[in-house]
Amino acid sequence: MAAVNKDDRLTGSQSFLCVGFAGIFSKTVTSPLEVVKILSQVGTFHCKYGFMRTFLLIYQREGFRAFWKGNSVSCLRLFPYSAIHLGTYKTFIHLYMDELGRISQWKAIVTGGLAGISAALLTYPLEVVETRMIAQNCRESTYRGVLHTLSSIKRHEGFLSLYRGFSLTILGAVPFSIGCYVVFINLDKLWQEHHFRFTSLQNFINGCLAAGVAQSLSFPFDTIKRKMQAQSPYLPHCGGVDVHFNGMIDCFKQVIKTKGVLSLWSGITANMLKIIPYYGLLFSCFEMCKQFCLYQNGYTVSPLSYKLKPGVDQSLGPEELQEFKRYLRNRQIQAQSSSMGNRWQT
């Protein structure tokens, strides 16, 4: 998966806010494609007439704002998910490192998968809420907001319903990790040079390529998960799911029996179209926020320029740089005081 590079010139809170803002912005802009993807996976009536027709039906039946159904929940989930993912990743990665602090690419991907599962476990109820809010008609809504959705599901269906389909997250992590690994071990052959020489554009293409392959392999698990999240006997038309089932295995059987094997990849078009703008916006927005923070920390001459400020040691951390600036100011003040004292004596 593509990831923004850590810059030691930013504080921890600045890095977190940059990633959070970039994630919220990219999710919000690409939300219409995410809505179409999830509705296609659930199997609501919108997706029965093809990819382009789905957009028109959503607009006709629910209005323009329907393309951002569930986006607030998705953005809300981003911050705890990122924090838990980062914390568990740092914990897991130290278990796989050798005595020299090195780690193989395969182990790094597995570590990322384990961290992702841990973060998903703690934030999974919000994902269920997102699916329910997207699957419903926003003009005839059953759920009103995040807290109302959580309390309604818990009250009517039980606490475990908030984790319905979570096992598919674990199962889907296997083909996802394999897809990432297959892409990354062949990048040197693709670009005909070593990975440490890749440019920012090459890393962006690598991230999109890895995401495309990995998500395609794990997509059937995600489709069944969305159907399980959406189905409920307490909702009109059982939540809009196109098949009725009892449990994960039965859901696979019913989908293949009634809709065909290829229906497990329903919504893949919208998902593939989302990858490039999503990661493009994620990278560019992160860089914009990062430049502003670097300027605030004193490393660059302008928040709109990559030009480094003359005389500033770029290897210093933000706290070290501020401490060094205070030291120089104190020296200057002492020098001025000494000069005034000498003039008074003469």
From TrEMBL:
Instruction: State the InterPro entries in the record.
Output: MCP, MCP_dom_sf, MCP_transmembrane
Q: Name one GO cellular component term.
A: mitochondrial inner membrane
Query: In which compartments does the protein localize?
Result: Mitochondrion inner membrane
Q: What is this protein called?
A: Solute carrier family 25 member 43
- Tell me how this protein sits in the membrane: Multi-pass membrane protein
Iron recorded as keyword: no
Entry keywords, A to Z: Membrane, Mitochondrion, Mitochondrion inner membrane, Repeat, Transmembrane, Transmembrane helix, Transport
Q: Kindly name one Pfam family recorded for this protein.
A: Mito_carr
- Transmembrane regions listed in the UniProt entry: 162-184
What does the record list as GO biological process? transmembrane transport
Per the record's keyword annotation, is ATP-binding included, yes or no?
Answer: no
Q: Which PROSITE patterns match?
A: SOLCAR (PS50920)
UniProt Solcar repeat ranges: 14-95, 107-190, 198-292
The protein's organism comes out as Silurus meridionalis
Family, similarity comment? Belongs to the mitochondrial carrier (TC 2.A.29) family.
